[in-house]
Each structure stands twice: as C-alpha cells, then as structure tokens.
Amino acid sequence: MATREYNYSGGGEHDVLTRTAWADTLHKQVQNKLYFNKAGFIGPDSGDEDHLDAAQAYYPIIQKTELGREGGDKIIMPLLRQLTGDATTGASTLKDSSGEEAMEFWSFDVWIELIRHATGWLHKMSPQRNKFHSKETVANLLSDWLAQQMDDSIFNTFYNGYSAHIITETGASTTAHPNQYYGGDAASQADVDSVDVFNTAVLERMAVWAEDNNINPVRLSNGEEGIVAIIHPYQLHTLRDDDKWINANQHGNTRGWENPIFSRAEGMYAGVHVHTTRKISNPASTVDDYTNKREAICLGAHAVARAIGQRPQLIKRDDTDYGRISNWAIDVIFGDSRADWSSDTTSVSTSNQSSSIWTTYGENPVS
Question: Residue 157: which of 180, 176, 136, 179 has the closest Cα?
C-alpha cells in the first residue's frame, strides 16, 4: 500500500521558565484543536507509566509523554496477555509443563521525530499600526497548522502503520492494515464498484466483526459504550440513502431538530457510532478507480499510541535584521503507531485487535 501524501515539512528571547510555561500553554492550545481530541477519542496522558493501565481504558488513542526524548528515539509499548490455558483438575499434575502456562509477552514500537514550521513578517511600518504583528497571532496560526499535521498523522497511522514523518525519517516501514474489509460482495479494493457502497449492511458487519474479535469498546462522551466508524462525507451520503438508517434514527433517536435526519449529524446503528470527516483516505493510486473509493475506519479502544518527546514550543528567529524581521517557528517531537502487536514469545507475528479498514464506493455526489 502506498504511503499517503501529507505535508510535513535557535534560542528564544525569554528565560527557560517563561519559555516552558509558554510551551505548555501552546501544547494545550494545539490539543484542543485536534479532531480526535474534540471527539473525545484521546485518552489522558499516561506520563511515565510503563503500561496500558485501567485508567486508559475506553480511549482509541493512547497518549504517552516522555519529555527529554530526542528525535529518532523509540518507545516500546508492552503488553502481557491474559492466561487462556485449561484448568488442572483433580489429581492431575500441575507443576512443570503439564499444567503451568507460560506468560506471553507482546509489544509494538512507537518512534518519535521532530516536525516544525515557521512564519512571520518583515516590518515595513511600525508594528504598533498592525494588529496582526503579534506573537499571539503567530501562535494561533502555527498551532492551527500543527493541529492539522497531528490529526493527519493519526489518520496516516491507521492506513500505513506509522506517522508519515516517522516513515520518512526513521527505519519504520509502511505497513498495510492487517484487518481489511470491503463493501457489498467485493473481495478486494480493486473489486469495489458502484454497488459496494457504505450502508447499514456494512455497519452490521462491523458490529459482528467487533463482537467476534472481542474488540474493546470505546466509551463516548455521553457515557455510552460501542465501537466507532469514522467515514467520509461521501460515504455518509450513501448511508443516508439507506431506508434502514433513516428508519432507525427516525424512531430510535432524539425527536426534534437535533435528530440526525434533520441536522445531518452522525448517528448510531447496531451499536456502531458514526463520525464523519473529509480526512478519510482514498486507496492507493494503483487501485483502479481509486478516486471514487473511500477507506472508512472502524475502531475500538487502544487503536493508536501517540508518544510525545517534546511538547510544542514557539521559538523566535535569531536573525532579526536589527528588529525588522519578526519570524517564529513551532516544533514538536512526537510519533504515532498503530497497535499492531508482535509476540515476543510465540511464532505469531502480528495481531491487531482494535481497528479495521472498510473500503466502499463513495463518489462525489455533487460533481
């Protein structure tokens, strides 16, 4: 699968304490603009904890900050699988290999790397005459840019295994998602055609897949639990053409103008909560008719791990041409990794038990 194209592209004036406080504020400003954070899908930061503990349950995106890490560092996320062996009964021997079950260790790697961007202006008049000549304006522009990059990073990770900038800068390789499914009767992305659209039948299959594979549910902001489907607006268009979707939301959802039928907001069907964003990807360009196909994401808890080695910080350009150049840069050291667990103790190479990709037909209904 080809990697999707995303645009990743000296000291400041203040003392260390001031700059650190600013970086923390900027970190929160960026986080508040993230699609996944606004949807309630990013769990609380686990800090220096070394495992996915109970406090992190129910979130699709697990965030772990290890400040002081450098670009190119690798953070290992460990997992100890539950015991599944048969019980030993009666006078049967328990000790040694006959009854003792070996512990099974699994892990996956999260690389982190630096990304940054800069903007500013050349003073041709007094900065006091232009309200846009301010550090706060630059911070807003750069934090908007960084939020988009960090959102794109999570989507890219679902499709390719790692953030785009991690694949570019480290030894991580593009890895197709191990759980691939398709609309209608299609057996591959190439097989998907105009009748293999996103509809309630796909949502029913998602629900069965999640139950059959013991996918841990996501806890939503209203306290409900379920799995989540993130789909493209073109896929929402075909879903809303399905009479079962209309009937289910008409009779089982909120009465009034907040009902998804009227508001065009997302709804729920078969325990699958539907969210929409235009950031859902097409298949790779090598797939026939790829521009009319969309790769929806189905996810449960613990689907992606985000590691942060340095929070976002704003840095002033050190060459100001006697005060006439006022440019600022933003940078952060982070990386995302899809939860493709590899066994350290068995021959099983990869297990993903938290997300899947569902490719359906979804052409632009306006063009």
Answer: 176
Strand runs labelled E in the chain: 61-65, 74-80, 105-111, 113-122, 180-182, 218-219, 225-231, 268-269, 272-276, 293-299, 304-316, 325-338, 342-343, 355-361
Q: Would the CA dihedral through 155, 159, 161, 166 be positive or negative?
A: negative
Mean pLDDT of the chain: 79
Write out pLDDT tens, residues 294-334.
999 999 988 999 999 888 888 888 888 777 777 889 999 99
Q: Which amino acid, 106?
A: W
Give the span between the Cα atoms of 24 and 30, in whole angstroms.
Answer: 10
- Residue 32 is which amino acid? N
**N-to-C CA span, the chain:** 27
3-state secondary structure of 285: coil
Nearest by Cα to 339 from 349, 331, 350: 350
Q: What pLDDT does 81 receive?
A: 65
Q: What distance lies between CA 285 and its chain's CA centroid?
A: 22
CA-based nearest residue to 362, from 285, 298, 280, 286? 280
- Non-local (6+) Cβ contacts of 272 within 8 A are 203, 206, 207, 210, 226, 227, 228, 229, 298
Identity at 82, one-letter amino acid code: Q
The pTM (predicted TM-score) of the whole model is 0.79
Checking if the pLDDT of 191 tops 90, the result is: yes
Q: What is the pLDDT of residue 264?
A: 41
Contact between 280 and 295 (Cβ < 8 Å): yes
In this predicted structure, what is the pLDDT of residue 18?
A: 33
Identify whether the C-beta of residue 337 lies closer than 8 Å to the C-beta of residue 112: no
Nearest to 10 by CA among 311, 329, 312: 329
Cα(247)–Cα(245) distance, rounded to whole angstroms? 6
